[in-house]
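Name: Cytochrome P450
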Amino acid sequence: MFFTDVATSTAKALLGLLVLRCVLVWSYRILFHPLHPYPGPFIAKLTDIYGAYHAFRRELHWITQRDHEKYGSVIRQGPNKLVFNSVAAIHDIYQNERLLKAQAYLVTQISPKIFNLFNVIDRKLHRTKRRIIGQGLNERAMRKFQPVMMQQVNVFLRRLVQASKDDTVVDMTELSAHLSLDISVELGFGYNLGLQTDEKNRWIVNAISTSNWRINLYIQWPFLKSLNVEKLLLPFLLPRVLQYHRLVRDMIKSRSAIAEHAKPDLFSFVSGYKDPETGESLSPRELWSESTFLIPAAGDTTSTLMAALFFYLSRNPGCYKRLATEIRTTFSSGADIRSGIKLSGCTYLRACIDEALRITPPTGTTLWRDVATDDNLAPVIVDGHIIPPGTRIGVNLYTIHHNEAYFPSPFVFKPERWTDDSISEESKKMMNDAFTPFSIGYRGCAGKPMVYLESSMVIAKALWFFDFEQCDARSNAVVQGWSK
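Structure predicted for Cytochrome P450:
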C-alpha cells in the first residue's frame, strides 16, 4: 500500500511538473517569443506538431497555401518558423550566404560523418561536393550519358507501342516512374534496374514514395526521429529495409567489378576528380552516398514532371495540338529527336515543361534555412522583416508557384504565359523570379540539366510517335499510334 501511494504521488507530481512546463513554455511562445507578433494557426505557435501532422496527411503544401490566403504573405508555421510568400523573400533567403541549410535536414544522414548534397550543412563542404558532383550532372556529362538515356527512352516507347496495338489504357504516372528510376540508377550506378521490363524490383517505387513521406515528416518535426518510433515498427519494416540494402549492395558490387570508365555514369565522371580549389575528392563511401541520393532525387523529380505534363496535355486539347504540331514539324523523324539546337529550340515544349513544373512542382515543400544564433553581423532582413537569430525561415514552392500576384489564374495550365509577348516586361520578370522549381543560389539543384534533357526527349518522342487522350478522371490516357 505504501509503495502504491508513493508511486501515485510521484506520478501526480511528474504530471504536474509536465503541465506546468507546458503552460510556461506555451505562454512564452504565445506572449513573449520574438515571433509572437506574426500571424498563423494557433497550434503552430505552440508546437511543430502542426507541420508534422499535415505532412503525415500529405497535405502540408496546400495547407500552407490556405494559411497564406488567411493570414497573409508571412506566417508563423512553428514556434521558431516563418514561411514567406513573395519574390523578395526568395532572393533574400536563398541568395543569402549568411543563412544555413536547416539542421533539420540532418535527419536524412545514414552515418554521422557522411553527408550528401541534400543534407550537408557546412557551406565550404557543400561547395566542394557541388563542384565534384557537378562533373557528373553538367551538360558535357549529359551528352556522354545520352546514348544510355536513349536506350531507356526507347524501351518506354515500346511499352507505348504495345499499349497502342492492344488499344489499352496506360497509367502514365506508373510508366514515367519506371522510366525515370531506370535512368537515374543507370546514371548513379551504371546498373540496369529493369523496372520497365521486369516486375521484380518495382517495389522500389512505393518504397521511395514512403521514404520521401517519412523524411518530410522528420524535417517538419525533427524531435520525432529522436523518439526512435521506427524501432517499434522494425519487425514490419525490416524485410523491406533489408531488401533495399541488398539492392544497393548489388548495384555497388556490380559497378565495382568493372573498369572505372567502363560506363558513362557518375562513378566514371567523378571518380578520381579533385576539386581545383581544395584539392579534395570523394571517398568511395561518399560517392556511393551521392549515387544513392541521386536515385530518388533525379528519378522522382523527372517522373513527377512527366506524369503531370501528360495529365495536363490530355485535359487541354488546345495545348496538346499546339505542342504536337511543333514537335511534328520540327523533326523529320523520331530518331532525329535528341539533345541539340532543334530540341532546345522547341519553345512551346519548354513552356509546357515549365508550366508543369510550376503548377505541380516535384518538391512542393518549404526549403528551410536557419538564421545562425552566433552571427554578430547586421540583422538578417527578409522582405523588410528583421529575422531574430535562431529562426527557421523559407518559402513554400507550391505556394509561391500559385501566388496570383505573379501567376494570374494560378491553377490553370497555361503554357502561353511563358511565351506571350503581350505580357509586360515587368510582369515577365516577376513571374520568372517567382519560378523556382529547382531553387536558386548556390544550393540550387545540380540535376537541372538532366531533368530538362530527359523530360524534353521523352515528351517530344511520345508526341512524335503517338496520339493520346484522357481516359477517365484518374489521370490515365489511351495511347494510339500516329504516323506522319
